[in-house]
Structure to design on (374 residues):
């Protein structure tokens, strides 16, 4: 792990930075890290993930180890999902949220249970410092608790696509193909001790591999030599939009509650223990929605982008919302987006327009996800 120091900022580099440069990746600043945006290009990289197996360096994501006798109770209090649904012996993960008392989303996270009193919490790169502050600020009632930020000491490689599991299995000393969705296990991949989790952010099957940072280049090379195609953040963003997967700062933020972000399914208001935001979220769970998140599919060649206004009808109607994330979908061959709009216009196939540089482009409300394989 290295950094670039300047008077104004510190840019972090993952331990795979040299590998990206040697492969000709285009590097860009992202969430305080210098990351590959693409190698061959977004189109061939998306195709590789949809048809074979792509490799993503996601080491910029924050990784916090939570351990101690109070670790379980602490995470039950901090997160909206029910950690008791994870087996006490470990070996499973769950998607969850950190919420404020007023219901706004601080971040979306994945909680990995390694054992009765040990967890890893993966947070968004852009929120790592904020999340760490939030987590540390709620430890007072839990005396037997240790939080360790392992982001700089570890690496995280995502292998995604229909051939991903077989690719990793060829290099693993344990059968990773038997892992259920959101299952995890310790193994050795290409001679490197690794925690393998059947999770991802592309809408495809696959696995995410946690390993020591200094071993990541050897693991990356072995995966690439076995047929994995290096992919950048550009392809990852296109893939997650096709799969209807939300991104913090786009589909959710501290001014958005889970039910407005299509994330109400993760909120367990029925779990026995209290959690931060429970009372607010329980009160608004069945309340009428003024706005909601929908899919928008373009009918022409236009590409919707974040922030573009969405209008009602197909004749220049009233503004009803805005695009939260949009892209050209190589898989579908057209522009697609997620949008937050007035709930009264959210029915599937409702005609809408997207305003792009003062030009009205016809579209329709579409079900999410646009693409689903897992």
């Amino acid at each position: 792990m290295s950094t670039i120091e300047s008077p104004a900022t510190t840019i972090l580099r993952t331990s795979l930075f040299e590998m990206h440069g040697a492969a000709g990746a285009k590097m860009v600043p992202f969430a305080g890290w210098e990351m590959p945006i693409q190698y061959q290009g977004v189109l061939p990289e998306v195709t590789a993930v949809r048809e074979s197996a792509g490799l993503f360096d996601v080491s910029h994501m924050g990784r916090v180890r939570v351990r101690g006798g109070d670790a379980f109770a602490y995470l039950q209090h901090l997160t909206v999902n029910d950690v008791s649904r994870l087996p006490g012996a470990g070996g499973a993960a769950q998607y969850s949220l950190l919420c404020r008392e007023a219901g706004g989303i601080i971040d979306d996270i994945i909680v990995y249970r390694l054992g009765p009193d040990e967890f890893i919490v993966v947070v968004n790169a852009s929120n790592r410092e904020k999340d760490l502050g939030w987590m540390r600020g709620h430890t007072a009632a839990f005396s037997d608790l240790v939080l360790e930020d392992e982001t700089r000491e570890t690496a995280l490689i995502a292998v995604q696509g229909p051939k991903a599991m077989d690719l990793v299995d060829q290099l693993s000393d344990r059968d990773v193909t038997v892992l259920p969705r959101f299952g995890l296990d310790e193994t050795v991949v290409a001679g490197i001790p690794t925690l393998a989790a059947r999770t991802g952010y592309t809408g495809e099957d696959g696995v995410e591999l946690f390993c020591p940072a200094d071993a990541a280049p050897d693991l990356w090379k072995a995966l690439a030599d076995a047929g994995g195609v290096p992919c950048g953040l550009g392809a990852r963003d296109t893939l997650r939009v096709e799969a209807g997967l939300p991104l913090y700062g786009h589909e959710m933020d501290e001014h958005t509650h889970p039910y407005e972000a299509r994330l109400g399914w993760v909120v367990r208001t029925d779990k026995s223990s209290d959690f931060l935001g429970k009372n607010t979220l329980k009160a608004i769970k069945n309340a009428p929605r003024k706005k909601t998140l929908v899919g928008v599919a373009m009918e022409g060649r236009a590409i919707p982008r974040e922030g573009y206004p969405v209008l009602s009808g197909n004749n220049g109607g009233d503004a009803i919302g805005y695009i939260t994330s949009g892209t050209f979908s190589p898989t579908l061959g057209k522009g697609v987006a997620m949008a937050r709009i007035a709930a009264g216009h959210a029915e599937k196939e409702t005609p809408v327009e997207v305003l792009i540089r003062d030009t009205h482009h016809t579209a329709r409300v579409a079900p999410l996800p646009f693409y689903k394989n897992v």
Remarks:
- Residues 62-149 form a domain with the Alpha-Beta Plaits fold (CATH 3.30.70.1400).
